[in-house]
Amino acid sequence: MRRGKPWHRNMLLHDADFTIVDKYGAEYRGIVQYYLMAQNVCRLSRLRWVMTVSLLRTLAAKHDSTVNKMACKYKATVDTPDGPRRCFAVVVQREDGRKPLVARFGGVPLRRQHTTVMSDVQPVMGNRQNELIRRLLAGRCEMCESTTGLQVHHVRKLADLKRPRRPDPGPWIRQMAERRRKTLVVCQKCHQRIHAGRATVSTRNRSPESRVLGN
């Protein structure tokens, strides 16, 4: 929320649509399922509306589009014990006959369930790929979108990004601060410019024409 209205989340703008929808969906399901035994669980409809608008605004800001276009693109229907429910979903098709990956937000009926069993399950720690590896496998510079000579720029701690009396921070500092990350995947050229103090312009959100002209 910002100024009393649902707002987009800047820290998610550089993530994939699947990741954005999956994060919103997990947070929403976690809250709703925790309160399913409450008599007035239906009052969470306000939360559903706020998170829905925030999700669509985040996707719209990422693609420089509108909320209505994002809603039409990702609207879907899911079957529940209480009948079909509308939701938003992103489907990623996979090869070798494997089932597609589905990230879904919504589709959870806000109805009290008397038979819900509350149980805290010990999380299973596996060897899941960490986020940095996934970003490296994406094969794209997070500053200029180049696909060659990728490297990782590190800072010792996030507090170093917000030093007092620092002049206007460059785009790489703002990007790392917004996403609260101590690493940034960049190409060799951008990495050299960062260390030389010349990385003052990001080409990630610029048009292809402006990149060719060097503006």
Give the secondary structure arrangement, pairings included.
Layout: H1 17-34, H2 45-63, H3 67-74, E1 75-80, E2 83-92, E3 101-106, H4 131-137, E4 150-154, H5 171-179, E5 183-187, H6 188-196, H7 208-213
Antiparallel strand pairs: 1-2, 2-3, 4-5
Helix pairs in contact: 1-2, 2-3
Question: What report would you give on this structure?
Answer:
This protein has 215 residues and is of the alpha+beta class. It contains 7 helices and 5 strands; from the N terminus they run H-H-H-E-E-E-H-E-H-E-H-H. It has a 3-stranded antiparallel β-sheet. The protein has a two-stranded antiparallel ribbon with strand order 4-5. The model is unreliable at 205-215 (pLDDT under 50).
Class inferred from helices and paired strands: alpha+beta
Number of helices: 7
N→C terminal distance? 35 Å
Based on CA inertia axes, which overall geometry fits? elongated
- Give the C-alpha Rg: 21 Å
Strand order of the largest sheet: 1-2-3
The average pLDDT is 81
Unreliably modeled segments: 205-215
Biggest beta sheet summary: 3 strands, antiparallel
For this entry, give a set of tags.
single chain, 7 helices, 215 residues, three-stranded antiparallel beta sheet, alpha+beta, two-stranded antiparallel ribbon, 5 strands, 35% helix
